[in-house]
Structure formats: structure tokens, C-alpha cells
Amino acid sequence: MIELLFFAYRDFVADPDRILAEYGFGRAHHRVLHFVDRHPGLTIAELLDILRITKQSLNRVLKELIEQGYIAQRTGTSDRRHRLLTCTPQGRQLAHRLAGVQGRRVRRALEEAGPGLREPASRFLLAMIEPEERAAVRRLIVGGDSAAEIAAAEGEARS
């Protein structure tokens, strides 16, 4: 199972890696783009908490994304010390291109595995996350089926 997870991850990131290489970006850029696109107005502190990387690592990646026009940063309204991050139209386009190739891979895998696998796969992936982190992950996952799947998986993981 561990080897399958290794190879699945390798191929899951291979498609975006090829696209990112066209821009001179790496996986850290991808993660930043993904979460900022999914959560416009995310603060740097929130992003650090999600990614679990050092501030120094984030600053390097974020600086490149801002300088090249993929991420915009603005001062918070209620707390001027906060830096709120959003994707520019160019950043959104790249984030969606990356999510698109990964989404196609996941959909294909679920189709090949057969009907009814989506919910058990979601439960399995949620169970791989540290129990104390599951609620925070659930809050991050937004939109339609994904939120419902995680909610169902979390409920079954507790039983």
C-alpha cells in the first residue's frame, strides 16, 4: 500500500510539474497558487498554517509569484498588518490549468476503479490525515461534492 501511495503521488504531481517547469516554478508555487485560488483573501499566516513550511520558504515563492503577476497582495482592512492574498487573472488561469490535469487524473482513476469508490476513497484519504487536523482540513475544502464527501467521511471515521 505504501508503494502504491508513492507511485500514485509521483504520477499525480507529474502532470503539474511539467506545466510548472514551463514557468520556472516548482511544487511550492503550485501549492501556494492552489490554496490562494481556492481561498481568495487568505492571509500569509493562514497559508503558512496550511502548507506547514517556514516563513522564509514561503516568502521566496510568494515573492516570485507576486513579481511575475500571479498573486496580488493587499493590506487587510481590519488589521493593516495582515497581507491578504488573491490570484490575479493570470494566476487563476494557471491554478485552474494545474487543477484541471490533476482533476482529470482523479476522475479517470475513480472511473476505472468502478462505481461507488468515490466515498470510500474520500474516507480513506481523510483517515490518512492526523485526527486532530481533520476538522481544519474539512473547513478548507469548499464546494459541492467535495465538502459533502469529507463530511460523510469524517462522520464515518468517528464511528
SSE topology sketch:
Layout: H1 2-23, H2 27-38, E1 42-43, H3 44-51, H4 55-67, E2 71-75, E3 83-87, H5 89-113, H6 118-128, H7 134-140, H8 144-158
Antiparallel strand pairs: 1-3, 2-3
Helix pairs in contact: 1-5, 2-4, 2-5, 6-8, 7-8
Q: Top keywords for this entry?
A:
disordered C terminus; 159 residues; globular
Describe the structure.
The protein contains eight helices and three strands. The model is unreliable at 143-159 (pLDDT under 50). The longest helix has 25 residues, at 89-113. Helix 1 runs antiparallel to helix 5, helix 2 crosses helix 4 (55-67) and helix 7 (134-140) runs antiparallel to helix 8 (144-158). The protein has 159 residues and is mainly alpha-helical. It has a three-stranded antiparallel β-sheet with strand order 1-3-2. A hairpin with a 7-residue loop joins strand 2 and strand 3 (83-87). The radius of gyration is 17 Å and the shape is globular. The two termini are 24 Å apart.
Which structural class do you get from the secondary structure elements? mainly alpha
The run of helices and strands is HHEHHEEHHHH
**Tally of DSSP β-strands:** 3
Report strand order across the widest sheet: 1-3-2
Helix content: over 70%
Task: Please state the average pLDDT score.
Answer: 87
Structural Rg: 17 Å
In DSSP terms, counting alpha (H) and pi (I) runs of 4 or more, how many helices?
A: 8
**Share of residues in strands:** 5-15%
Describe the largest sheet.
3 strands, antiparallel
**Which stretches are poorly predicted, pLDDT < 50 over at least 5 residues?**
143-159
Label the overall shape: globular
Question: What is the CA–CA distance across the termini?
Answer: 24 Å
